[in-house]
Amino acid sequence: MANTWGYGAMTNHFGDIVGHSKAIFVIGANSAVANPIGFKHMLQAKDRNNAKLIVVDPVYTRSAAKADHYLRIRSGTDIALIYGILHVIFKNGWEDKQFIEQRTYGIEDVKKEAEKWTPEVASDVTGIPAEQIVQIATLLAKTKPATVVWALGITQHSVGSSNTRILPILQLVLGNMGKKGGGCNIIRGHDNVQGSTDMCNLADSLPGYYGLADGSWKHFAKGWGVDFEWIQKRFFEPKWMNAKGFSLAKWYQGVLQEEKTYSSSPIRALWIQGTGITSMSQTLKVKEALDKLDLLVIAEPFVNEAAVITDKKDDVYILPACTQFETEGSVTATNRSAQWRSKVIEPLYESKSDEQIMFEFAKKFGFYDEFVRGMMMGVKEGKIQQVKKDFVWPDDASDEIARIIKTIGLDGWTAKRLRKHQENWHMFDPITLEGKGPMKGEYYGLPWPCWNENHGGSPILYDVDTSVKEGGMGFRNRFGLEHNGVSQMADDKVTVKGSLVQGGYPEITKDNIEKVLGITLSDAEKALIGANWKVDYSGIIEKKCMEKGVAPYGNARARAIVWEFPDPVPMHREPIHSPRTDLVAKYPTYEDQKNNFRVEVKYKSEQQKQDWVKDFPTMIVSMRVVNLSGAGMLERTSKYLSHITPEMFANIHPDLALSYGIRDGEDMWLHAPHGTKIKVKAHHNVSVTPDRICLPYNFAGVFQGVDLSANYPEGTKPYTIGESSNIITNYGFDIITQISEYNAGLCRVEKA
Amino acid sequence: MSEMARMKFYCDDKRCIECFACSVACAEAHELPVGISRRKVVTLFDGVEGKEISTSIACMHCTDAPCEQVCPVDCFYIREDGIVLHDKDKCIGCGYCLYACPFGAPQFPRDGAFGHKGSMDKCTMCAGGPLETNSKEERELYGQNRIAEGKVPMCAAVCSTNALLVGDAEMVSDIYRNRVASRGKNA
Q1: ipTM over 0.90
Q2: Looking at the domain covering B7-181, what would its CATH class be?
Q3: Residue B1 above 50 pLDDT?
Q4: Which of A183, A323, A541, A593 is the residue whose CA sits 20 to 30 A from A618?
Q5: What is the per-residue DSSP string for A40-55?
């Protein structure tokens, strides 16, 4: 996504689906279960717009039950399906030629690849009937606007980063981008996931997606009122500042070092705050790494099951963090809008808020003053400087974010404004998000980019028919001015509404601002202005751009080829553990990766190590249950939620189960290629076909058949425990993001 | 009196997605023992392509309530607004009402963390019982009395897809009629 047009976030919003979508293409998302209230909007669109709901999923989900068209896809073949659809679109000349010509780059290469993917070829790979592929391609081509919705079913693959590019390409070809009712609506799976990525719970960037580079660090150093050299000295060696860290998916190799790692030292201590570690794959490796650590600290409201699966007896500390009801601040919704959240009660007992825990940590390690100084900074006379001696939580933290994070346009997200939106939410239209009365001119939650304190936010990204002031913009200029001699600027005919600069233009820098905007800066302005729009604390670039109706980030082309990636155009590659050996030969995975996130990663050597399907003939698909989220450690402490799924299970087709002599409700073993196994209840269910089983990932507390009840600190055992499906999630990681391949893999079923 | 409200539930099965919000919120709000389902979520033809259907079901507060007719101790009473309630102090837990009820609404508690819920327990449409309104006793035996506070019953208040509608029968049918009549008109 970000590599296609600038930002990796939901482009439109739920209200927009209700208001305008005529077709909704849902792939790799089961919103009825994962986001029930989000799903309401799709049902409303069905009612109000006669919108056609298309659901693509390896299993017949609750969302599929509400669909007009259900496509049962084989896991890990999404790219093949989309190429099949594109093949039909191109063959019939149904592509949006003007959009492609004026606002995209590289679609020709996609067209060439799509030629190979006749509906019959795509059908053989995906398992979806060829006629259905033609039917859906026709429906999408003839029904405008159509929106595409996806979630983790798309990202969690060894080809996840190609999956998330082929779907934007589909929308570009159909001309559905920057349109009401169109767009790519990626749904975040949990509360504030968008906010936590915006704020960088990531190992490969700084907050606000600032890349790992000295320039970014210097920007933050300024914003935090500390010396760049001081930050640099916190690192073992300067070179590690700009090196990606270990990822959540493979951090354990930093401890175990079974696969080659590239780091200054093995990992010896682990601090867990706000992630259910049993929802990560390769749980046995996670356990072994936890056992081997010198120190394990867990700061959570509920006992993180990391503390339960480990045999480590000493140097494990569990700090009680309070819940969101006991703290205050902003969270970011899936559509890039902020919501202020009030404290309902003071933290219970000895629990502390996340920030208090971090403050105490900073004090102990001697950097508290530097840690909190950013909250006392401000911009005065065009310069960033310390403006006060104390701070107020959380308002000054929010204002600090607004002051520093310019990449995604958080400039306008001051605590004062966010509080005002919370207090006046009845003044906003739920369909258009537009404010009424005193809130006129603002969209609810100020969806980013929100360029300044008077800007109302941008509800629909890349909409050139709306002025920048009212939330419009072109695609972001993020990938240089030209590639292979072709300009990456939007066509001369693509002028953002109200822009005084005609056609496409580059992102605005100190060097090009005068030329692009046709202005002359005063000497005083030249002295204050930052190098480019992303680091300009003076606000001059943003101000001058707004005067000309220009988006500071440029007006460029979306690109269908990402020349830095191993597959410049997305290519179908079979999952690491594929049930189709014949297709593995034809569509093999990548070469092994030497170093990504500090560790080597196996691809081809694992995929072709043996004919996996012989010993592991059944596909595994993960699923979510509506009453549990993530590792389920929170919800399984509720007796009413636990009651809905009192034990870990897998949905298995009666034909498959009975061929192993497994009756409905009996226990079965599931064995994974890497030698692990779990014991779960068999639920006979026809939502799965006999070639695959489907299991939730929200349990922990039982490990390869062993009950770990005794490992819970007294009084903390949840009402339900069970095997974590991730014990058997197969080895496999995305080539770019290193997310685990949760959603494609193989297993062997055995009667218990 | 024609303007007299007649309270009804309606569940739009085109909207219900089996999210369990109604039944969990009901259990939490009224502090029900686990296993007592004043409101149940049911899925039929689970996993069968093209046939699967989900709905939420509780006491339907029948106009001509069979439970009331068969009760040997006459513990049921029907409020003016049509909500069917019962007096747990009179109830003997015989189970006749369960036989008579077409919806399986009456529940028979065994025990629970929050104490005894009477011999028979069922949906009150969040209208409490015969004890003093919003008293501690009413709350413990019958659960919250949200109707007296002017609030929507818990189940419909939390319905994630607006499938479950509750209120004056006329209002409920107006909402549903509007939903059907405006189909495809982007209204």
Answers
A1: yes
A2: alpha beta
A3: no
A4: A593
A5: HHHHHHHHHH-PEEEE
